Amino acid sequence: MEFPNLGEQCSVSSCKQLDFLPFKCDACRNVFCKQHFLYAAHSCKEAALKDNLVPVCPLCNEPVPCRKGETADVAVSQHIDEDCKDERATGKRNTVYSNKCSLRHCKNKELIPLVCKFCERNFCLKHRHPTDHKCDKEQVGQPTAQSLPSKNAAAAALERISKLNAVSNSNQSHKPSHTENQAFTVQGNLSEEEALQKALEMSLADAGRTNISIPLQNTSILQEEEDRLLAAAISESEREYNKNKNKCYLS
């Protein structure tokens, strides 16, 4: 051959044809003959990089530009969420993210409302806590630590008293004769102060403290002793009530 270096062979292993005017693939940079120079003819692995087809939005039918290396699905999805002018896309953007943050210079919107329990304004996830949006009503609306135990104790006491009164009224409606007889047995012909004295003595006697007596005329008794006796009487009354609350009386 006069020109042994003229031309190149096709890069397809099953072809290897010597071509004096070969074609060079702009994707894989290999040489091919006129039968295999197309991407599909030689199964080019880099053909996707040269695919410049522009996807079209299915809602507004507008072409959506894609960046290099970005898939068409991601570009179309971002276009629908941000730039699509179709009524279905704009309606979705206006209804889903309609809870705007109330903090100044913040433009974030959330799917669900996040309302502060102190100032009753809506905020985003970043500014939902009172300390994050500098809530000016947090200290006013928040109860102090010292007032909480007293309020809870008072509420519990009121609830307990109401329950005791309700049960006591129901027991009195079921057995009026028993209550009247018991009151008459305690009081009899005594005055109100003497009846109260006798009731305290009977309560202490049932609790195993039968040797304690409280003279009515003794004015030198200490306040602590009176409080102790009254507490013992109340405790004994509660014990009797808890003992008889599960009993059923037929009128």
TrEMBL record:
Alphabetically, the GO molecular function entries are: zinc ion binding
Q: What Pfam families does the annotation carry?
A: zf-AN1, zf-C2H2_ZFAND2
What keywords does the record list, in alphabetical order?
Metal-binding, Repeat, Zinc, Zinc-finger
In this chain the AN1-type domain maps to 4-52, 95-143
Q: Which GO terms describe its biological process?
A: proteasome-mediated ubiquitin-dependent protein catabolic process; protein targeting to ER
Against SMART domains, the record matches this protein to:
UIM, ZnF_AN1
Q: Which InterPro entries match?
A: AN1-like_Znf, UIM_dom, Znf-C2H2_ZFAND2A/B, Znf_AN1
Q: Name one GO cellular component term.
A: endoplasmic reticulum
Which protein is depicted?
AN1-type zinc finger protein 2A-like protein
Q: Look up and give the organism this protein is from.
A: Dinothrombium tinctorium
